[in-house]
Every structure is written in C-alpha cells, then in structure tokens.
Amino acid sequence: MTFRARQFSFAFPQPTLVMGIVNVTPDSFSDGGHFLDPAAAVAHAEKQVEQGAEIIDVGGESTRPGAQGVSEAEELRRVIPVIERLADRVKVPISIDTMKPAVARAALQAGASIVNDIAANRTDDAMWRVVADTGAGYVCVHMQGTPQTMQLNPNYADAVKEVGDFFVERLRRLNDSGVGADQVVLDVGIGFGKTVEHNLQLLTGLRSFTKLQRPLLLGVSRKSFIGKLLGADVAERLAGSLACACWAVRAGAQIIRTHDVAETVQAMRMTEAIWAQEK
Ligand code: 7PJ
User: Which of 101, 109, 164 is nearest to 138 (CA)?
Assistant: First the structure.
C-alpha cells in the first residue's frame, strides 16, 4: 500500500509515522497563542522534526467545538509565511489543516504537500479539484456536522458502520473528482461530532477500516474525551493520549497526529518492538 503526496511517497507497512501539530492560532484548546509568530511556529516545527516527526501539520483555524471561524485572509496571513519558511528548512512533507479550498491551494503553492481536510463531509468538489490538480495527499476526516454544531448532539445508530460507509462513499467521490486512492489517507475524526462512547467505539472498531486498503491516521492528542474519562486537564492528557496511540497502531493505524512528538515516537517504537516478536 502506497501513499503519494506530490514528491513524497510512503510505502506501507513501515514504522508508524508521527505527524507533529503546529497550530498558528490564538485560540486552539491546548497550545493556542504559543506559535502565532511565524518564527516561533517554524522553530517549533523544526524541533518536532528533530524529535522524529515525519509530517508537519500546520493549521491556522481552531476547530475546537464551537470555535469561531476565521476569514480566508486571516487564515492565509497565519499559515502561508510559516509554510514558506518551513518548506525551505525541513525535508518532511508539510500538511495544511484547513477547510478552505483557497487556503489549501495557496498552501500547496507555498510548499505544502498534503491537505488535511476535517470538512471532508463537504458537498461540493472544490477542495478535491485542488488535490487532483496538484497531486497532493489528502486526509479524509470523518465529521458529523460542522465545528460549530458537531458536539451539540452527536448521534449514530452504529458509529463504526456509519464512518465506514462514509469512507467508501468519499473514496468514490474523490475518484470521480480525479483524486487517486493512493493519494488518500482515512481518519475517523476523533472528537468531531462524537461522544466519549462514540470515540471509544471507533477506537475499538479501528481494525475494520483496514479492509479499505488505505493508511489510517488518528488524532487523539490531548483531546477532551481523554479528559472526560480521566478527569484530566489538557496539560495532563499525555499518558492517555499515548495509550490511545499504542492501541490504534496495534489495530492498524499508520499515522499518529500529536502535539507531543518525542514521547509519541518512543511509544510507537516500543509498541513496534513488542509487535515484531509476534509476527
Ligand atoms: C484532527 C485534525 C484529527 C486530523 C484536528 C485537535 C483538533 N486533523 N485536526 N485528525 N484534529 N486529520 O487537534 O484536537 O483528529 S484539530
């Protein structure tokens, strides 16, 4: 199984890829405001690469539940200087975490290679045409609703089945828009229109999505369901996040999105070392 993102190509199976999060936002739930200055964001990303991150995910719009959207101009102002500088300085692919096709296009022009689309439940194909035109990688994230509405009343008869059906239907629509399956990574979208139980069900059922023959990405880092389960503030969720990451990799995930790169890389190498004895 190969994942292609412009000049980059990953052939799986291979050791778990760790994706480092760089939020260029004033209001993200766990690191908002820390890296608004482009130089600080770039330094943070470079440190993550030294720690073993193999993808850097740059985002300029907070998508925590109920967060205010930002204008396209403001989002561009936040992310483009960071991506331009990073593209010169790191060898790993840069992904752009955005819901806006124009931001994705500008980010790809500035040197990004992957579009991380939490709004893959979109109805029009403008974002997919950007991906098709550029040969970028595409992270197809499941979300029920929008960031403004998603946590009001998440509702599923069978979360694992509905997310699986969503992936199948999106892979078909992506293909219709000219995006090859080998450009696509799938992500169940932990916390995007899900209760604690839905998130746990999706982690339990993760293995079922491997039959789609696409890499699975998981974003659990410091998320609120961990806080709710453990009664832990956002700064105290590392151990819970790592437990989810180890579980997910054992269940078939290939990419882990995290704020805590060094710790996650260690947890992944340890999990893989144990697993290697079994195979
Ligand atoms: C995710 C994401 C995720 C992907 C965010 C946060 C909220 N992208 N962007 N998967 N979450 N692909 O980091 O808590 O789970 S923003």
Answer: 101
Residue 29 has pLDDT above 80, yes or no: no
Position 246, amino acid: C
Q: What is the distance in A from the centroid of ligand 1 to the CA of 189?
A: 7
Alpha helices in the chain (DSSP H): 38-50, 72-89, 101-109, 126-134, 159-176, 196-204, 224-230, 238-250, 261-278
Cβ < 6 Å from ligand 1: which residues? 63, 97, 116, 118, 139, 141, 187, 189-190, 217, 219, 223, 257
Kindly state the average pLDDT of the residues 198-207.
98
pTM summary value? 0.97
Name the band, by pLDDT with cuts 50, 70 and 90, for residue 28: low
pLDDT of residue 279: 67
Closest ligand 1 atom to Cα of 185: 12
State how far the alpha carbon of 38 is from the alpha carbons of 114, 171, 226, 247, 262, in Å: 20, 35, 30, 34, 22
Q: Tokens at residue 188, please?
A: 């169940």
Q: How far is the CA of 117 from the centre of ligand 1 (A)?
A: 9
Q: Output the average pLDDT for the chain.
A: 96
pLDDT score of 204 more than 70: yes
- Whole-number Å distance between alpha carbons of 71 and 205: 37
Report how far residue 115's alpha carbon sits from residue 109's, in angstroms, rounded to the nearest whole number: 12
